[in-house]
Design brief:
Layout lengths: L7 H13 L2 H8 L3 H15 L4 E4 L2 E4 L1 H28 L5 E7 L4 H12 L6 E7 L3 H7 L5 E4 L8 E13 L4 H4 L6 H5 L2 E5 L17 E5 L2 H9 L5 E4 H10 L3 E2 L7 E10 L6 H22 L3
Parallel strand pairs: 3-4, 3-5, 7-8
Antiparallel strand pairs: 1-2, 5-11, 6-9, 6-10, 6-11
């Protein structure tokens, strides 16, 4: 591959001239002599065979060709700046990549708040999020494929901290046959109906959770799919309250009047794969803790 004729330094000089309006001002901004600034631009134009600047009054302006070329060169300068910032971060111990396995039960608000916090602080680290169900987080931790996990249970051999509790509501669409029965319902009423359940994404020791007494079960991979099925009146299920709050308020979903087990709770735990985790991993863990604390406060407020 042919080496470029021009350098980033030359483009930086041209950009400074345009921003400041002249050679002398650019020289002052760059802490260089005016003659070196003039030479850099003259050499750049000679190498490209294109006029990049034109005088307009007391200021230097880009030609049409110069404007088009500097626009692309600006992207290169920003990339070079990010590259140098990344190198500084890596030299200070920041991980190049952070892999996080997040249980699908984690509220989206918590995940988004933590990611926004992380993005503003750990620009040198690429974040890889893996959305998992039930024992999927365990599998990734045991396989060494995750640096951090939000898991429904503490995997064997790992320590973790409680993050938040999620509440599940037994519900169905208002038009569902269970609501037409009237009165309090028990297991015998549920067995004859279709129950929607979530598939465990793990493979080492997959598990089933919740009541599974229905003769017919529909298993889905994503919580949103199960919610859509229940809203459509195709099945009943225990759904996470934080995902169906608006559907309950709007009347698209209606809690089932069960004699027992109408509500259940599940806990999420924050687990670090290595106690000697790097600074990016520790920061993201703290960001999740902060976001989860705010979510708990909002959830505790009267609706």
């Amino acid at each position: 591959m042919r080496a470029p004729k021009t350098t980033l330094e030359q483009w930086q000089v041209l950009q400074a001239i345009v921003e400041t309006g002249g050679f002398a001002q650019a020289a002052e901004q760059l802490h260089r002599s005016q003659s070196s600034v003039s030479y850099a631009v003259a050499r750049l134009q000679e190498q490209l065979g294109v006029a990049l600047l034109r005088p307009e009054g007391r200021r230097m302006r880009l030609t049409v060709e110069g404007e088009a070329l500097l626009r692309e060169a600006g992207d290169l300068l920003r990339q070079a700046q990010r590259l140098e910032e990344r190198a500084v971060g890596l030299s200070q111990g920041w991980e190049p990549v952070l892999r996080a396995a997040l249980d699908s039960l984690l509220p989206a608000e918590v995940m988004l708040e933590a990611c926004a916090d992380f993005a503003g602080h750990c620009r040198e680290t690429r974040l890889q999020l893996h959305e998992v169900v039930m024992s999927g987080a365990d599998d990734m931790l045991h396989a060494g494929e995750a640096d951090l996990a939000v898991a429904g249970r503490l995997p064997q051999g790992f320590l973790g901290d409680w993050l938040l509790d999620a509440e599940f509501v037994a519900c169905a669409a208002p038009s569902h046959s269970l609501h037409r029965l009237g009165g309090v319902l028990d297991e015998s009423h549920l067995r004859a109906e279709v129950q929607v359940v979530l598939r465990d994404s793990g493979s080492r020791q997959p598990r089933d959770e919740g009541w599974l007494g229905a003769h017919q079960r529909w298993t889905v991979s994503q919580p949103e799919t199960g919610i859509a099925m229940v809203e459509a009146g195709l099945a009943f299920g225990w759904l996470a309250r934080h995902r169906i709050g608006s559907a309950l308020r709007d009347g698209r979903l209606k809690p089932l009047p069960l004699k027992n087990g109408a509500l259940r709770k599940a806990s999420l735990h924050l687990v670090l794969a290595d106690e000697a985790a790097g600074p990016a991993c520790r920061y993201f863990a703290d960001a999740l803790r902060r976001a989860a604390a705010r979510w708990r406060q909002r959830a505790a407020m009267p609706q």
